[in-house]
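Table S2 (continued). Query chain:
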Amino acid sequence: MNIRVVGGGSLGLLLAGRLAAGGSSVELLCRTTSQAEFLRRDKLRLIEGEEAREISLSVLADEEERTEERKPDWLLVTVKQKAITPAFAQRLAAMCGPGTRVACFQNGVGHTEVLAGALGAERLFAAVTTEGARRTGPREVEHTGRGITWLGPVYPEALRHVPDGPEAGLLQRLREAGFEAAYAPRMEQLVWNKLIINAVINPLTAVLNVRNGELLERPELLEAMRALYKEAAGIAGCQGIIVSENLWEQVTGVCLRTARNQSSMLQDVLAGRETEIEAITGSLLRLGAECGFEAKSHQLLYWLVKAKSASKTIDVKI
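Corresponding output:
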């Protein structure tokens, strides 16, 4: 099985590194030639706890011309949601052979429709992961928290599941790489669960400049989280989505398990990068507006993250 990881960010580096170390045939497609050259020359450095190891990878750059003798069996798309444009979808389509499947690891909702238009619904799988990763350089990634990766078809009606279907091989490769991985026949609830978890945790940590665990340490912040959770669950309900019964416990559980971690949104703010506020809170607000649900708490956080991203002079560290 040939696997191509599309995107050299934190998750892409983690997946490519562990898959390669586990014996899979994997190549990493980076956005820039400079990152590809770093990885070719110095290898990928994967940090897990107190240990670090150097991993050799087959690396490509999006800017480089290439002739593909064999199409990948799987594309693992780990770029941020904002990168998924019609032009990007067409580039992915050019990488696909007749049997290629595509696993989408993005936060938020709406991007799979863009991909389906170019790739076909039968190719598309959603992947929801709770693995934690932090990129500390163009060739270096830290595995900051273990979790589980769920994989299943985006459009179940377009793909009849069989016990040894195309996803079985990928799940096996992920397990051989040391990840906990499982099949989910219907991914919609899991996608919404993660959207809500991210919408409750990430913007708060980004605005307040706190680590995930600090959200549980003050009653006021816990109440703010509850307000955000209730609004997000209300939007899901008005969209006809039934979220997990224990989703609130999942939210607080993420904060506990990743207590010392900085959320990806906080990392982006501190580094001066564009955040995923549009993919996460923006998606939620748009879905709420579709059914007339007003989410004032999320709207306020949306504006605050936008403002903080635009100016490093805003500091509301508690």
